[in-house]
Design goal:
This protein is an alpha/beta fold and 415 residues long. The protein has helices at 16-27, 42-46, 56-59, 62-71, 86-98, 130-133, 197-200, 212-225, 254-269, 337-345, 385-399, 407-410; strands spanning 8-12, 31-35, 107-108, 111-118, 137-143, 148-153, 155-158, 204-208, 232-236, 273-276, 279-286, 292-298, 302-306, 308-311, 369-371. The protein is 27% helix and 19% strand. The structure holds flavin-adenine dinucleotide. Flavin-adenine dinucleotide binds next to α1, α2, β4 and α11.
Amino acid sequence: MSSETPKKIAILGGGPIGLEAALYARFLGFEVTVFEQGKIANNVASWGHVKMFSPFAMNSSPLGVAAVSAQDTQYSAPSANDLLTGDEFRERYLLPLGESDLLVDHVQTQTRVLSLGRQGFLKNDAVGQPNRSAVPFRLLTVDSDGSESFHHADVVIDCTGTWNQPRQLGPSGIPAIGERSTTEEIEYRIPDFQQQESLYGNRHTLLVGSGYSAATTLTGLSELVTRYPETRVTWVTRDGTARPFSPIPEDPLVERSKLTETANQLAQDANFVRHLPGSSIKAMQKSITGNWKIEIEGSHEQLVECDQVIANVGFKPNMEMLSELQIHQCYASEGPMKLAAMLLSSSATDCLQQPKTQAETLMTTEVDFYLLGSKSYGRNSQFLLASGLTQIRELFTVIAGRDELNLYDTIQPSP
Ligand SMILES: Cc1cc2nc3c(=O)[nH]c(=O)nc-3n(C[C@H](O)[C@H](O)[C@H](O)COP(=O)(O)OP(=O)(O)OC[C@H]3O[C@@H](n4cnc5c(N)ncnc54)[C@H](O)[C@@H]3O)c2cc1C
């Protein structure tokens, strides 16, 4: 850890955690630039139609609400218990935050970070040496016109999330035969069924995956059935049980437990769903008429013909942009090693029960480089915004060199 106060902080990604980290840094007087490849909270916008399962108070910081309220006396923050959609979260909190005086001139939208390295050093130079950590980082960015630029920073905080890199749907995590040539035709996210009724209503959809995204997709499809009674779903899960979701005992996040219970019930009882547990996709092919032929292997080996394929099989971090840095990564989750080890050592399946982040677990082998937010969890999908806010608070005790620092306690919105 460098002992001098760093001057310039580059934050990669203007999602919820990037914005909150930038705000914290600005309150402390650091010079900050957020590089965001799209618009503010770009990824949240792409799941804007989805209702969040944690209440607003868990997804926002008192510092953020204070910053927005201080600027706009008419601002009415969502209530602590409000369960917002992604769009509401973005419009009622993240956009005003990004446009607040403290951040507005410090966020460069439409600026994608392509790569970063340590000035004057290659990846394999000066391993763990103080002369490596004494020099700034150099970042290569590209804007929407295709213009490339270099930037420098003393500290880099990567908050670029994982949403931009879906995993493959084939067996063992590798692509199914034919997947690579049809990637553009596969939906890897959660469709807005209200907007895409013609694609899914009265059609046969193959759904792959058994996480919260798959549960959300299945619930969305079930809502289409009332208007489009011929809608059908074949749901393929690796898990061999008829009820793919194990309930979290006394789950404090009521919406989350409702979601998984609904998905379990649909898997067992709904006429429009054919659930194939213990199975995976071996091969896929799309005909010129637009129909899919899917070969399924495992407990329910068969050929399926369908109109649409939705693969909610998780995401992975983009480590390619960090490939010139010296980061010790977990070989399982691809997250930074110390944090990954802490998460792996916890057997908790509930993200709320994860051990609390300590500043020490955020240190990487590349001094002054940090991963926060959903990317810091790598392939582990347990990340919650509340954990990201804890990460920010812990990290700035290190960056500012003040063990007791906690702006979330000391700065509160006016009543
Ligand atoms: C459908 C859905 C619902 C969820 N609901 C909840 C919930 O209710 N409660 C909860 O706590 N969590 C929830 N999560 C999990 C998690 O909190 C969110 O994914 C959250 O958006 C993560 O925030 P983040 O800032 O880490 O990453 P993101 O929101 O993914 O933000 C990353 C940002 O980085 C930008 N970016 C990416 N690559 C680059 C690059 N190379 N250069 C520049 N910018 C880049 C992206 O455009 C994006 O704006 C949900 C997730 C999903 C997908």
